[in-house]
Amino acid sequence: MVGGGLSRQVGLVALGKGASALSILALSAVLAWAWDPDQMGAYGAVWSLGNFLIPLFLLGFPTSLLYFYPRLDQAGRQRLVLQAALCLAVAGMALGGLLHLAGPWLAFLLDYEKKAGAGELGPYLGAFLPYVCCWVAGGVVEPALVAAGRLRWQAGIAVGVAVLQLGIGGAAVLWGWEVGEVLWAFSGLGGLRLAAGYALVGAAVGWGGWGRRVEGLGELLRYSLPVALGDGVGSMARAVDRLVVLWFFSTETFGFYYLGAIEVPVSVLLASATAVLIPQVSGLHAQGRRAEIAGLWRAAVERLSLVVMPLFFFLLALSGTLVELFYPRQYGQSAWVMRVFLLTLPLRCAIYNPLLVGMGKARWVLWVGAGDLLLNLGLSLLLTQALLTLWTAWAFLGPALATVLSTWVQVAALVGLIAWQLRLGPGRLLPWGQLGRVCRVSALAGGLCWAAALLPLPALLRVALGGAVFGAVAWWGSRPADRAVFAALWRAEKSP
Questions:
Q1: Which one in 358, 420, 442, 490 has a CA-CA gap of 20 to 30 Å to 133?
Q2: Cβ proximity of 442 and 313 under 8 Å
Q3: Are 260 and 333 in contact (CB under 8 A)?
């Protein structure tokens, strides 16, 4: 399982997640060409406000389901899925009601109605409410399908949603949809995903357990609550920078900040690795097999580093050219936001919180996340105020810099806790030799890629030339074992 089997499972789960993440990025690029920065800022504000609350209202059930599912018999599994689905349906309605009531207050707190071209926040949130309700209610779909071994089904529904998301962007361009119309279309898509997901879960697991639906609920809630708080705190920490930008700057500034502060799709590999690893870590920890957990984690880090580190140096080398290629000239400052956020990408070579959660240490994750939130908020306010005084033109980068600094501190704390729990020193916990070798090759490839991108050519040709140079150097510096990992990921959809 540590070898090719793990790679195939991670790759298959990543297929769906990657399609969804890439479609969101493509949609943002399409809308940037259809809308001005004020409209993009309005869309980004509602999208950010809705989505940063979703992890908290998922109540930790997706992670908890992956933790408990392998420990139960078939009847217990059906009861577990039913409990999670009912609780998330209630949570989804609660989130919708909260956003409906809080809309006017959010507009006031963010000074939204006074920002140029912003309009009113309330109608936009109203159009987006069904989406967040359905997304929370459907939070059981992915973990249930993964835990039941229906990885192809999970990938299939995710790819289908991704295609329809791109269709929304195409409709916005062809028919001139405004922000509200696009948000309503997303709400319809959320309802469609919920219905299809429940049908697939019913076929994979079944909706039994109605007669004993309360049994085990207390244990599930006790485990889930710290996970939910940790996820919610982490989500708020990730949203701090956007909220600070919304508070201090215009909607236009938030428009290009939102496009630059993109989440690099490598996170789908992390989420996929999480979905695959948590059930295994849970089982191994229950048997006290710490050495095998450490080996499993090192193997995951080795494989993730083969994607994350080359991607970091490639994007850093071509960030300006990519923004020039995909966004209109008026969004040129998005490149600087993108460069700052890329500095957190090397940390994505590993998963941290889910590993501790899988070992039953969800409270540790919560406390570290709370510290990250407070540090991020304090640094964001401090750096933004300082830059507004000293370098006003670059003050919008203050929240991004704060997020990067606090994330590095958070990861250092998590690695220390993982090493302590597994009774290993940091030197034995991570594959430093592998990481160093991949970094050296990727840095060389990135430097040559950056030099190639300086040639006086159109942006598309510079990206193509830089990509070709980077790929050639990275392939030259790779080992046969590295290529075998990529081959396993490529064949993931053919795995049984």
A1: 358
A2: yes
A3: yes
Using one digit for the tens of pLDDT, what is the confidence trace for 416-448?
A: 888 888 877 767 778 888 889 899 999 999 999
More confident residue, 297 or 276: 297
**Paired tokens of 132:** 């967040």
CA distance 322 to 342: 13
Angle of helix 290-326 versus helix 459-477 axis, rounded to 10: 150
Element (H, E) at 159: helix 151-175
Q: Given the structure tokens 């987006």, which residue do they identify? A: 128
Pairwise CA distance, residues 491 & 250, whole Å:
47
Best-predicted range by mean pLDDT (13-22, 89-98, 273-282):
89-98
CB neighbour list of residue 229: distance below 8 Å, 6 or more residues apart: 56, 60, 366
What's the burial of 494, exposed, middle or buried (CB within 10 Å: 0-12/13-18/19+)? exposed
3-state class percentages of the chain: helix first, strand second, coil last, to nearest 5: 85, 0, 15
- Compute φ and ψ for 327, nearest 5 degrees: -120, 155
At 257 the three-state DSSP class reads helix
Q: How many residues does the chain have?
A: 496
Let me know: does 52 contact 239? Beta carbons within 8 Å: yes
One-letter-per-residue 3-state SS of 407-424 = HHHHHHHHHHHHHHHHCC
Measured over the CA atoms of residue 265, residue 271, residue 272 and residue 274, the dihedral's sign is positive
Q: How far is 447 from 334, CA to CA, in rounded Å?
A: 22
Q: What is the rounded distance in angstroms from the CA atom of residue 226 to the CA atom of residue 64?
A: 10
pLDDT at position 2: 42
pLDDT of residue 89: 92
